[in-house]
User: What shape does this take?
Amino acid sequence: MLSATGTTGVPEVGELSTGVALVCLGSAAWLAGGWHSGVRRARTVLAEGRKGGSHGTSGTSRADGADGTGGSGGAGGSGGTSSTGPPAARWTADGLRRVRGRLRPEWWSVAAGLMLALLGHSVLPILAGAAGVPVLRRVRLAGRERRARERRQDAVIALCGTLAGEVRAGRQPGEALLYAAHDSGGLGDAQAAVLAAARFGGDVPGTLAAAAGQPGSEGLRGLAACWRVAVDQGAGLAAGLDRLEGALRAERDQRADLRAQLAGARATAVMLAGLPVLGLLLGVALGSDPLHVLLHTGAGLGCLLAGGVLESLGVWWVARIVRGAEAAS
Assistant: This one.
């Protein structure tokens, strides 16, 4: 007992840091969704109990009203229940939900750095976690832009197909564009300008070409060219739109195939990013203290710096290869 707690009965610093780290992990898991699921179950139980209580109260009120003794008391009881307001658990759940909505995923890097700082008794992990926030934010924003670009590409393909069907059904090009734009939404932010040009006889090809400047909406340039040729030379607009839709679909399929082929390179980058964590866990499993060696010795700090630089270069190089292959396609 004395060796575990010391002569004064106070826990050692290592045990205290481990306890704080466990509390941080529990708080992260709590915020990740366990608390909310418990609150949802509690709300369901309370709602069912409140419904049963309201039915029982109404039955009691009717019974009391029948003998003329307790009708007003039942009304007062229901009024008191409605004036109590939301419970504290609901307030806490709403507050945590707002915090969770504002807390971006990249800030978990700071939480991980704080946990490693408590375990390793050093401020370097906190600095590293803070430095990782802008990098992770950039990755998250790049992923969001890529998904938005893919949605615009799919919407433009749907617009071409719907517009070709409307023109083939006998509608005029302007009227067909109005219907197709509302159905597919492929015009994006420039939909109002394009629809106004189509409705009032404006420059529809020019407006479509301007709308093609959005990432993922490059297919609108082909739509503008088809529109200009159909109006100026009387060519069939539906046939041109069918060919344009086929070309855009083929281009999308080619990008999907390339992305599938580059999945191995992306997995390599993820594996490179996770190797240091695996090494630390392996060192702990062998009974050593890798955090102390890395954060409190000169050789460990040198290895940490060199390993961080080499890993960053490796991940950057793999990401550069992937981006170059996607740009070349």
The chain has 14 helices and no strands. The longest helix spans residues 13-67. Confidence is low (pLDDT under 50) at residues 1-13, 31-42, 45-85. Residues 262-328 form one domain.
